[in-house]
Amino acid sequence: MKVSIDHDQCIGAGQCVLSAPEVFDQRDEDGTVMLLDEKPAEGVRGRVRDAVHLCPAGVIEVDE
Amino acid sequence: MTKPTTETPAYPMVRGCPFDPPSDLAQLQREAPISKVRIWDGSTPWLISRYEDVRAVLGDPRVSSDIDLPGYPRVSAGIAARPDESKTFVNLDEPAHSAQRRALTSDFRVKKMEELRPRIQSLVDGLIDDLLAGPQPADLVSKFALPLPSMVICELLGVPYEDRTFFHKISNTIISRDSTPEESVKAFDDVLAYLIDLLDRKDADPVDDVFSHLAVEQMRTGKLSRRELGPMAALLLVAGHETTASMIALGVATLFDHPDQLKELRETDDPALVASAVEELLRYLSIVHAGRRRVALEDLEVGGQLIRKGEGIIASIDIANRDQDAMTDPDHLDIHRGTRDHVAFGYGVHQCLGQPLARIELQVVFGTLFRRIPTLALAVPEDELEFKPEGEVYGMHALPVRW
């Protein structure tokens, strides 16, 4: 799995951080998404998929 | 009940059970999930009622939140009468929306809100101490559900809590569908003057709170003007306490109606179950019951229905969160359901900014209240409870309890 984000469209709702904090964080300066792990381990992939579904701005993509 | 197909149903519809969306709305979802409804001004926007369609519409950049565009289905005459300059990011499209919202997102980060948990816990415990020391029966709305989010948002924003009587009254006027246009405009002007003065004082003497950050980083640098910041500050103050207060009161009343689940919540020490219960109450109650209002910027198709440019749209999140095609047994409250896969905070770029704060406040409340007051119960028959169908945000006028 490879994760990519469209940072410019992020609205900082924080859903991804709640789903997979190992993979996503929010930047201190504006709360927008920060990708911590482009290639998440198998154990968190389900929660990364949750983040894709829950992201209100649709800015997370995964290539499986 | 069966209606002739030529009749356009009136919206909003009337609830039967106070904890469920109106049954006419449920019928519409089953039989005509995308259909025209007639609102207060006689206009006939599209009502979108299915979960997938609501997400599709709210996530579509061809759909606008701009309240000033022709065809936008305004909630009430009072709201319609507000001046154009009262628009905030809630009613702006990109890129203006993000320019305003990003001035705030740092202050509402998940981790930043999590740091507030101990302080929120101490406020909750203090309010419960006061409640227990006072007479019975007591009104849980005025003694607990409203003061908690008010205290929290005041501390976070940097608004003196002593001024709460003033802004509670103003908030009620602003969000009530029953307010006259004059009352609504006057309330908005009053709160705006108060908040702009407060921002000026923060600019002169900044501390570590949201309004100081706005004054120093936005107002002082000229990134956002006073005209933009005043309404934003008003939005934060109003949205920051009425909604959470409603969720606390309605959530407690809902759990009184589900004693087995209340018992389970009272006896658990599992924060995951408390968090799951909070998500379920958010889904089940969906208090923003006036629907998310939009207007189409272009012709577009939703769930097989053509919506034309300029036509109004109401995305009904309350019934969408009860869609049996999207979730199992949606009319059943199940605190174990535990999913954030609901649209109670909306969806799309306008999804609630304050959701990380709301979640933590509700988690602390529902993880503490029944544990601290195990005998907490309604002090009046359920049919005497007074709900707030007239608000943009559903809620309760009072919740008399004893213990």
How does this model look, in words?
The complex is a heterodimer of chains A (64) and B (403). Chain A has 64 residues and is an alpha+beta fold. Helix content of chain A is 28%, strand content 22%. The mean pLDDT of chain A is 96. Chain B has 403 residues and is α+β, with helices and mostly antiparallel strands. Chain B has 16 helices and ten strands. Chain B has helices at residues 23-31, 51-58, 77-80, 96-101, 110-114, 117-133, 140-145, 147-157, 164-175, 181-204, 210-219, 226-256, 259-267, 271-285, 317-320, 355-372; strands at residues 34-36, 46-48, 63-64, 138-139, 292-296, 300-302, 305-307, 312-315, 377-378, 400-402. A five-stranded mixed beta sheet of chain B has the order 1-2-8-5-3, with helices on one face. In chain B, strand 6 (300-302) and strand 7 (305-307) form a beta hairpin. The longest helix of chain B has 31 residues, at 226-256. The mean pLDDT of chain B is 93.
Strand order of the largest sheet of chain A: 1-4
Strand order of the largest sheet of chain B: 1-2-8-5-3
Order of helices and strands of chain A: EHEEHE
Categorize the overall geometry of chain A: globular
What composes the largest sheet of chain A?
2 strands, antiparallel
Taking the sheet with the most strands of chain B, its summary is: 5 strands, mixed
Average pLDDT number of chain A: 96
Most extensive contact: A-B, 23 and 25 residues
Low-confidence stretches of chain B: none
Oligomer: heterodimer
Which bin fits the share of residues in helices of chain B? Answer: 40-55%
